[in-house]
Amino acid sequence: MAKIVYLTMVFATFLAAFLMVEQGEAFTCGTTLQERTKQLCDPFHRGEQQDPSAECCNSLKAFRDTAKTREERIELCRCVQDRSNRNRAGVPAPDARVPKIDALPAKCGLPFIYSADRKFDCNTVN
User: Fold this and answer.
1) Who contacts 86 (Cβ-Cβ below 8 Å, separation ≥6)?
2) How far apart are CA 123 and CA 126, in angstroms?
3) pLDDT digit string (tens) for 80-92?
4) Which pLDDT value is given to residue 38?
5) Which residues contact 57 (CB under 8 A, 6 or more apart)?
6) What mean pLDDT do residues 47-69 have?
7) pTM of the prediction?
8) Pfam families from the xrefs (predicted)?
9) What is the DSSP string of the chain?
10) pLDDT above 90 covers what percent of the chain?
11) How does pLDDT run across 2-20, given as a tens digit for each residue?
12) Given phi > 0 = left and psi -120 to 50 = alpha, else beta, which region is 9?
């Protein structure tokens, strides 16, 4: 009888822990989704398109949705700043791209969360 009670308690503990964890991936910088978003949105960032494509906006929304907590949104901000201010070879990118990157959420109908400008303090993100 004690063994049944013990196993029931262990099962209940695991079930409670499982239900408390949010389903889905936590935000991480450098993911495939982030790289895909950058690739899809680069034509807009470089000024080759007046407006971002639907694929770019959908990918941006999915990428931003992975940052669920304030801490993850702060990390998202730092990630975007870091990646936006370097090209693929790690060379500093021109600051001229920052306004285009910052305009992207509004063009995609998403709220402003952060700026790609290095002067923006990511710790102010809610």
Assistant:
1) 92, 93
2) 8
3) 888 877 665 555 5
4) 87
5) 107, 108, 109, 110
6) 93
7) 0.70
8) Tryp_alpha_amyl
9) -HHHHHHHHHHHHHHHHHHHSPSSPPP-TT-HHHHHHHHHHHHHHTTS-SS--HHHHHHHHHHHHT--SHHHHHHHHHHHHHHHTB-TTSPBPPTTHHHHHHHHHHHTT------SSTTS-GGG--
10) 44
11) 544 333 333 333 323 333 3
12) alpha
Burial call 48-67: b when 16+ CB within 10 Å, e when fewer: eeeebeeebbebbeebbebb
> Taking Cα atoms as reference points, which of 111, 113, 13, 20 lies closest to residue 72?
113
12: Cβ contacts below 8 Å, ≥ 6 apart? none
State the residue for tokens 């929304």: 61
